[in-house]
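Long-time lurker. I teach an intro course on protein structure, and each term I like to show students one example going from raw sequence to a predicted 3D structure in token notation. This year I'd like something fresh instead of my usual example. Would anyone be willing to generate the tokens for the chain below so I can use it in lecture? Attribution to the forum is fine with me.
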Amino acid sequence: MVTWKLASEDAVERAEHAAEVARRLNALDGVVPQLRSISAGANSVYPDANWDVTLISDFDSVEALEQYQVHPAHEEVAVFIRSVVASRVAVDFEV
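-- Reply from a regular --
Happy to contribute to a lecture. Here you go:
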């Protein structure tokens, strides 16, 4: 699970960026073979209190996660995310 707080102080622009981050991440489904599942979404309530966008993704192993992280399609999305993000938090856990 990864959650981002975006950098823009303008609420409309921040919402647009969050939607674009989610769209680009969700588009990785079927492109990056190591992804078992992926779901990203922009925050829809309490924009002044909540973080802006969250990613939930599942992998079969830590190795698959590491391969995903260096996949060219993921790296392209990551460039955009880094261009609009202020803060990031993540938790990796096994189910």
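Some talking points for your students: The chain has a mean pLDDT of 97. The longest strand covers residues 37-42.
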